[in-house]
Every structure is written in structure tokens, then in C-alpha cells.
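It would be a great kindness if you could assist me with a short task in structural biology. The matter concerns a single protein, recorded as an amino acid sequence and a row of C-alpha cells. Could you please explain, in whatever detail you think fit, how the C-alpha cells follow from the sequence? Thank you for your consideration; the sequence and its C-alpha cells are set out here:
___
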Amino acid sequence: VHGVHLEYDLLSVETGSFDRDFQHFRAVVRELERRLGSVLCQAFDDSNTIYAAFKVVDSFDTLLERDIIHQDWLSKQADLIGMYSKELRLVQDIFYSLMHNPPMY
């Protein structure tokens, strides 16, 4: 791993350079998390099956714990449950329609 050359003493408490750099780093990370949250939501919205939606969730697995991404994800959870419920109703309808005359394979 290559180090970064700093123009200040990292361990010096008198200089505020580290604090500024750290705040900048946190701002960049927050912006990246916002973008990832947008990607998650867009990928979820583009999912046309419950399998695809769960695949999106699985792809973002540990990132969903990040606060900003988690907030974006909360708005999609009800949609996921709705998709799941709709798919279950479809399976139930198919089952009931074929229950008395099942296909022979």
C-alpha cells in the first residue's frame, strides 16, 4: 500500500489540517453513499420480478446498513412487500385454478 504524502504532521493537535481533510473525506463518503442509494433505488425500480428485486437487495447487502443508503432503502421496503404479496396471490390463483384438474407431466 502506498502512503499519501502530507504537508503537515498528522499527529500534531495544534494544526487543523487533519480535521479539514477528515471533514472533506466524510463529505465525499456521504456523497458517494447518496449516489449508491440512488443506484439501489433505480435498480430496484427497474426490477420487473420479485427475484430481480431480491437480487438487487442481495447485491447491496452490507451497504444497506449505511445510514444514508438505509434511508433510501426504507422507502422501497413497502414496494418489495407489495411485489411479494402480488406474486403470492398469482401463485395462489394458479394453484386454485388447477387444483381439481392438475396437469399431468
About this structure: The helical segments are 17-46, 50-59, 67-98. The two ends are 60 Å apart (CA to CA). The CA atoms of residues 6 and 18 lie 9 Å apart.
